[in-house]
Amino acid sequence: MASEKGKVAIIGSGLIGKSWSVLFCRAGYEVYLYDIDEKQVSNALSGILESLQELEGKGLLKNSKITSAQEAHKLVHGCSDIAEAIEGAIYIQVCKINMSILMFNIDQTALFAKHARDV
Fold this sequence. Notes:
Helix content is 44%, strand content 15%. The protein is α/β, with parallel strands linked by helices. It has a single domain (7-116), classed as Rossmann fold (3-Layer(aba) Sandwich), CATH 3.40.50.720. It has a four-stranded parallel β-sheet. Helix 1 links the parallel strand 1 and strand 2 (30-34). The relative contact order is 0.22.
């Protein structure tokens, strides 16, 4: 499901990464969630759906662009390739404390991806 709002990359799929993913998909952004640990990404995707279902159950999705947990969850994609996650992203949210970050232009994703792989 492509989003008209754009693509957001979330680097790190722990508690903070999951929280950012919920925030962005509720707002209608396509989210690519990256982590070096594929099992962590899988667990995060399940946790994101649970969070969205809880929000829906409490009526808290009514004021967002997305009105159902399933609709929002379809916007979230897990990936184990950082280049795929950040390619074409209009925003990158880094949630890994131990990751060295370069200041970069969003158009220079290959440089960022190469650096991230080398860390």
